[in-house]
Structures are given as structure tokens and as C-alpha cells.
Amino acid sequence: MTTDAKPRLTRDLMAHRIADEFEDGWIANLGVGMPTLCSDFVPAEKFVVLHSENGVIGYGRGATVEEATPYS
Amino acid sequence: MNAGVQPVLMHEYTSIVHHADAFGIIRKGLLDVAVLGAYEVAANGDFANWKMAGRHGGGIGGAMDLAVCAKRIFIMMEHTLRDNRPRLLARCTLPLTATCVVKLIMTDLGLFEPLGDSFKLLEIAPDWTVAEVQALTGAPVVTDGEPRVFGLH
């Protein structure tokens, strides 16, 4: 079977699809690795509180290099 | 910082709490969903995501707390290993993180629901056939007629 050549879904598509399953008012934890990408795709019309084990509750999408504030 | 130590943006309502309080939120069962990665998922809803033969890495971390306490577990993973061996199996071979908790699995080949002894294919990646997906899956893949082609709402 020549399945190797076929394109698979990208990580962003997978993260977007999972984020679409979130419902308004949910509290969601995104695990280390691919799941963290979901924070970039939470639908704007839904209020979803993102929870991280390290204690950041209600965070938003990933920050770009320019947006990130370095430790000081 | 998120759990992967990547920088994230804060909203006006973002709170910074103690690590122990963050686990209090988990263990009290307040999480509606935890989205986790996995090395293997079984058709009965077991999954393994912390220890792989020949690979060094962290311990199990908070995964067990999340897996047991969250109201539902979604898994996001690659469908196969690099050599195309399946990671969706009838039974996991690696040490388990939790048993019978997985509700939904998003892989790079489609969206699946574990049914006990098979995986229900809810949505399939464009240009893939059910037979091709089945060939790369370690348990029966069942569908409700033709599966929907993967798409974003």
C-alpha cells in the first residue's frame, strides 16, 4: 500500500479540531507537547479557561518572540 | 509559561496560583477536559504517555492526576510510529497512565472514539480510505457508513 506518500493532517489542523470540541465555560488543561497548540485555536465566541499545572489559570494563545517578556 | 514552558499571553482575568493550588483544581475534578499526548491508546480507553522503551525522559508528571480527575480526556497524537507501526491498539504494551478514560482521539489520520474493542472513525483525513487507516491501526476500525472527511467548523 502506498500510504507513505499521502499527506497526513498537520499539528495545527489537529489542534484546531480539538479546540473546536471545547464548549463555552469549560476549564481545560492542555498537556505538554502537541496539545499546547490548542491554545492558539480556542474559538473566540467561546469562553474557555485554560489551566496549566504550573499555576497559570486562564492563559491565552502562545506568545510570539516579540511578545514574550524575558525573565529579569 | 504553559505546561511545555513556552511563553503564552495573559488575559485581564489570568491568575497565577501556587503549583499545589493548580493541582488542587485538578484533583477536585474541576477540569472539564484534559488534552494529552500519548505514545499508545487502546480501544478500551487505556492510554500510555509517560514511559517508552529506550527513551529517557521525565517521569509521569501530572498526567496521572489529570487522567483520573478530569471529566473527559482527549488525546492528540500521531497515528503511527515512524516505521508505520500502529499506536492505536487493542491493548497498550507500554506502562499505562490511566485506564478506560479516553473519550476522543485526534490523530494525523482522523478523529476516533474508543468503543471498547474497536475504534470508531468519526472523521478521516482527506484522500485517505478507511482500509488504509485500518491497515495502520492495531484494532478494528468501525464507521457509521462513510466517515465524514476531516474539516474545521
Any chance you could write out the topology, listing elements then pairs?
The complex is a heterodimer of chains A (72) and B (153).
Chain A: H1 11-21, E1 27-30, E2 49-51, E3 56-62
Parallel strand pairs in A: 1-2
Chain B: E1 8-16, H1 19-27, E2 33-36, E3 40-42, E4 47-48, H2 63-69, E5 73-76, E6 88-89, E7 102-107, E8 110-114, E9 119-124, H3 130-135, E10 141-142, E11 148-149
Parallel strand pairs in B: 2-5, 3-6, 5-7, 9-10, 9-11
Antiparallel strand pairs in B: 3-4, 7-8, 8-9
Describe the protein.
By secondary structure, chain A is α+β, with helices and mostly antiparallel strands. Chain A has one helix at residues 11-21; strands at residues 27-30, 49-51, 56-62. In chain A, strands 1-2 form a two-stranded parallel ribbon. The longest helix of chain A has 11 residues, at 11-21. Chain A is globular and about 45 Å long. Chain A starts with 10 loop residues before the first helix and ends in a 10-residue tail after the last strand. Chain B is an alpha/beta fold and 153 residues long. In chain B, strands 2, 5, 7, 8, 9, 10 and 11 form a seven-stranded mixed beta sheet that branches. Chain B has a three-stranded mixed beta sheet with strand order 4-3-6, with no helix packed on it. The mean pLDDT of chain B is 91. At the A-B interface, α1, β1 and β3 of A face β1, α1, β2 and β7 of B.
Number of strands of chain B: 11
Termini gap of chain B: 29 Å
Number of helices of chain B: 3
- Most extensive chain contact? A-B, 50 and 58 residues
Give the SSE string of chain B. EHEEEHEEEEEHEE
Approximate strand percentage of chain A: 15-25%
Poorly predicted parts of chain A: none
What is the rounded distance between the termini of chain A? 55 Å
Oligomeric nature of the chains = heterodimer
Quick recap of the structure?
By secondary structure, chain A is α+β, with helices and mostly antiparallel strands. Chain A is built from one helix and three strands. In chain A, 39% of the residues are buried.
